[in-house]
Amino acid sequence: NIYVYLVKPTDSGEACKLPYRVGSFSWDMYFCNRGYCPTENNSNSTCKPGKFSSLSLNNNIKNSFQLKTESGGIDSVDQQCLIYYYYMSSMAGTKIITVTKEETSGTKTTIDSVTSSPFNGWIQRKILFKAETRGYKV
């Protein structure tokens, strides 16, 4: 299966009606299914591609990714807002997403932590935090 995070509407310009059911399955679908989804006027509209990253982790496996920024880090200070989306399958195992801010002084602070998903779909997280100096990294 290919899952697409729907940042953009369908090719017809309509938004997908989410969630929906696929065939006889009893669970809700929050993604395009094989490149299609239902809209208000069409039960099988073509989805525009969105952007997402996929990472498969098993228990006790850890990976780190730094946000791509200018070479000097993020050029902002004081109150900041990070908005990100995640999909964490409820299938098997313990999973944790930890978002860390690193100041230019080397001080690292956890600004968010996620351990579960309230439903089978993309979840938006909006995190407010303070940057002490310019050039911090997330």
TrEMBL record:
MAM domain: from which residue to which, for each copy?
Answer: 11-138
Q: Which GO terms describe its cellular component?
A: membrane
Q: Which residues cross the membrane?
A: none
Fetch the InterPro entries from UniProt.
Answer: MAM_dom
UniProt protein name: MAM domain-containing protein
What is the scientific name of the source organism?
A: Rotaria socialis
